[in-house]
């Protein structure tokens, strides 16, 4: 059985999976050889999780854009690569063929070179969902610069934190971005961020919303003006070592500030392409619509790199699912004849609230595969999606993965291995999950009552797309992912496994929240709240929310109780918005006199979590608290 071939059946999957585990090096070497290498690799894998030190295809030289673009030109030059659906449906959709995209990427790569960007430089990209965002990312990769895309919803402070951490001297942005009825003033947010970052040398600004902005002499240049100067450029794909960084993407953890997850040129490429093809079973000529933003890993892997590596047609949507009305996704499916729709449970749940009338008269017959990602999907949402969108005939791939994993890790394969509501099901070939107890011992025992094993989800063997480090601080990578359990990558998630080896992900077991599919660290939100004048200390936990999955509950101790609490709450959320972004705003803020602490001063989050969830009868043992009476008070005043 050749690993490269599409898996065709459950039996086939089993054979391929067994091979990937029994001889991983041979398995991945065969797959990796199908790419264009400027210098072929001779070594497949070196690894230990103690460093960690993981190297795939180490002595190979390649450029991912040669594999995304150049290699498709002979057969697919005139075929569509990117379809762009603008915010307003009445505006014309634009599209790029592979030949056009190739040229556009080379032109912008030349602009980057002209602005002084060199191989290895970090380039921050802060843009809306326009095709130029994909072009900017690919142009960085073309010349070997390391892109770091920052989601358009993050605040100026978050951007400067990231610019400083990555020591990025270049920024690519646009005047503004359209989102429904709003214009997001991206360039002015960048201007504010750069007040703290005078090391930034150049800002390249795309005109899009025509919002009036100010341009700083010698620092800011216009995208269009610079593109005009280069004409039809030819920029050869820079020779990159397989282990050279391709991009940094910041994500939240259980402690401290967001960390820069680093993905590499070779392994990430192989993983993004392999997972895209096997999971979605993309067929020639189909259109793939992933509704994520390129500011997140899902957009990197399944809007840009995965589809383009596979020579597929990928759709980029600028707007939001509820503009001009809540039927927008279905209008896009009908208009462009979308075949694969990949979205998040939170989007499904919010659209469920509008009922099913919106489907009347809409032709969704082009759909073949549906997908979900980002958080556990509840069965009700799964069935709604299955019946109303997939008309009970499209398989749903429930894809579990993370920023750190680069691509999908556990998922059914569309139409090939069975789907099952709320279950991500089987690990992809090459992925060796393991469930452990809190001491790191493997859990084997199936609970006879449930029929499942439960435990903390880890992975015991490397895969090509895994993170290699956290930018600028390798020890943090070790502490975050490899120190909890010896020789295991710890995901931070809990999971069930049944006797047939299917996984159901239950969600985070650490201090990371998942709000509308966005990952937010409780420590990050607490740090922001604590910066607010008048706040003594705070504790943040998550609680279940019908649409968002999880929402934020903040318990805050203030120095002065005389102020009106409504005003304090509003101010606190404004502080969070300023320091992180509106996505991290607290849904509930309870002003309390004290927090439940142990005698050693540790905040007992377990108790606060139960209070936030409304489980007041299941608070557990409170006798070890320094002052158990605070708990009663918090319970009485619970929001
Ligand atoms: O808790 C898991 C949840 O999202 C986390 C990863 O978040 P992030 O790095 O932002 O990446 C999101 C997109 C890949 C995981 O630790 N998660 C992701 N997909 C699923 C999921 N939980 C349950 N089921 C999923 N399919």
What does this structure look like?
α5 crosses α6 (131-143), α5 (98-114) packs across α9 and α13 crosses α14. The chain has a 7-stranded mixed sheet with strand order 5-4-17-16-18-19-20, with helices on both faces. It has a 5-stranded parallel sheet with strand order 7-6-8-11-12, sandwiched between helices. Strands 21-22-24-25 form a 4-stranded antiparallel sheet. The model has no long low-confidence stretch (mean pLDDT 96). The protein has 19 helices and 30 strands. With 639 residues, the chain is an alpha/beta fold. Bound molecules: adenosine-5'-monophosphate-propyl ester (PRX). Adenosine-5'-monophosphate-propyl ester binds at residues 251, 297-298, 373-376, 398-403, 424, 491-493, 505, 507-508, 514, 519.
Strand and helix layout:
Elements: H1 10-22, H2 24-32, E1 45-48, E2 53-56, E3 61-62, H3 64-68, H4 73-76, E4 80-85, E5 94-97, H5 98-114, E6 122-126, H6 131-143, E7 146-149, H7 156-166, E8 170-174, E9 177-179, E10 182-184, H8 186-194, E11 202-206, E12 220-222, H9 223-230, E13 240-241, E14 245-251, E15 259-264, H10 265-280, E16 287-290, H11 297-309, E17 313-317, H12 328-336, E18 340-343, H13 345-352, E19 369-373, H14 379-389, E20 396-399, E21 433-436, E22 452-459, E23 469-470, H15 474-482, E24 489-498, E25 503-508, E26 512-515, E27 518-521, H16 522-530, E28 535-545, E29 549-558, H17 565-579, E30 588-592, H18 605-613, H19 629-636
Parallel strand pairs: 4-17, 6-7, 6-8, 8-11, 11-12, 16-17, 16-18, 18-19, 19-20, 29-30
Antiparallel strand pairs: 1-2, 3-13, 4-5, 9-10, 14-15, 15-23, 21-22, 22-24, 24-25, 26-27, 28-29
């Amino acid at each position: 059985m050749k690993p490269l071939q599409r898996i065709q059946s459950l039996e086939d999957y089993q054979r391929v999976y067994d091979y990937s585990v029994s001889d991983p090096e041979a398995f991945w070497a065969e797959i990796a050889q199908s790419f264009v290498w400027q210098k072929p690799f001779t070594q497949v894998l070196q690894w230990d999780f103690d460093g960690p030190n993981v190297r795939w295809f180490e002595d190979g030289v390649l450029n991912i854009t040669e594999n995304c673009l150049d290699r498709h030109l002979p057969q697919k030059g005139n075929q569509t690569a990117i379809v762009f659906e603008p915010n307003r449906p009445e505006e014309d959709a634009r599209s790029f063929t592979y030949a056009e995209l190739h040229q556009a990427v080379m032109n912008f790569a030349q602009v980057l070179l002209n602005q002084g960007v060199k191989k290895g430089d970090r380039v921050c990209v802060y843009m809306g969902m326009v095709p130029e965002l994909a072009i900017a990312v690919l142009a960085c990769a073309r010349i070997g610069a390391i892109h770091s895309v920052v989601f358009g919803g993050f605040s100026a402070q978050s951007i400067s934190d990231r610019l400083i951490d990555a020591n990025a001297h270049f920024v690519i942005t646009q005047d503004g971005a359209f989102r429904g009825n709003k214009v997001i003033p991206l360039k002015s947010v960048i201007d504010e961020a750069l007040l703290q970052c005078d090391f930034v040398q150049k800002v390249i600004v795309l005109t899009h919303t025509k919002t009036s902005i100010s341009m700083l002499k010698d620092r800011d240049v216009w995208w269009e003006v610079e593109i005009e100067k280069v004409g039809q450029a030819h920029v050869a794909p820079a020779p990159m070592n397989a282990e050279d960084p391709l991009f940094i993407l910041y994500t939240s953890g259980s402690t401290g500030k967001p960390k820069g997850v680093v993905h590499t040129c070779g392994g990430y490429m192989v993983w993004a392409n392999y997972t895209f093809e096997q999971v979605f079973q993309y067929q020639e000529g189909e259109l793939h619509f992933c509704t994520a933003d390129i500011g997140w890993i899902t957009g990197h892997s399944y809007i840009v790199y995965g589809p383009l590596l596979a020579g597929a047609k990928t759709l980029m949507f600028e707007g939001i699912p509820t503009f001009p009305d809540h039927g927008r996704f279905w209008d896009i499916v009908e208009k462009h004849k979308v075949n694969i729709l990949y979205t998040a449970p939170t989007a499904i749940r919010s659209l469920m609230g509008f009922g099913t009338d919106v489907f009347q008269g809409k032709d969704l017959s082009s759909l073949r595969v549906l997908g979900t990602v980002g958080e556990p999907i509840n069965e009700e949402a799964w069935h709604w999606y299955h019946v109303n969108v997939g008309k009970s005939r499209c398989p749903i791939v429930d894809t579990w993965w993370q920023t750190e994993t680069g691509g999908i890790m556990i998922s059914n394969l569309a139409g090939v291995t069975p789907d099952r509501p709320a279950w991500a099901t089987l690990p992809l070939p090459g992925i060796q999950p393991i469930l452990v107890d809190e001491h790191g011992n493997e859990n084997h025992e199936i609970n006879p009552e449930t029929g499942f094993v439960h435990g903390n989800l880890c992975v015991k063997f490397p895969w090509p797309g895994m993170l290699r480090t956290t930018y600028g601080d390798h020890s943090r990578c070790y502490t975050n992912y490899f120190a909890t359990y010896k020789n295991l990558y710890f995901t931070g998630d809990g999971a069930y496994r049944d006797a047939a080896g299917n996984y159901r992900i239950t969600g985070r077991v650490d201090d990371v929240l998942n709000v509308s599919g966005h990952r937010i660290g409780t420590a990050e939100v607490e740090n922001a709240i604590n910066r607010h004048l008048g706040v003594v200390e705070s504790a943040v936990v998550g609680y279940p929310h019908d649409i968002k999955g999880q929402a934020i509950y903040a318990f805050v101790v203030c120095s002065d109780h005389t102020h009106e609490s409504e005003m304090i709450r509003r101010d606190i959320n404004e502080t969070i918005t300023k320091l992180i972004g509106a996505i991290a705003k607290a849904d509930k803020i309870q002003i309390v006199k004290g927090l439940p602490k142990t005698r050693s001063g540790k905040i007992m989050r377990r108790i606060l979590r139960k209070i936030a969830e409304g489980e007041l009868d299941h608070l557990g043992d409170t006798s070890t608290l320094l002052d158990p009476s605070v708990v009663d008070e918090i319970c009485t005043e619970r929001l």
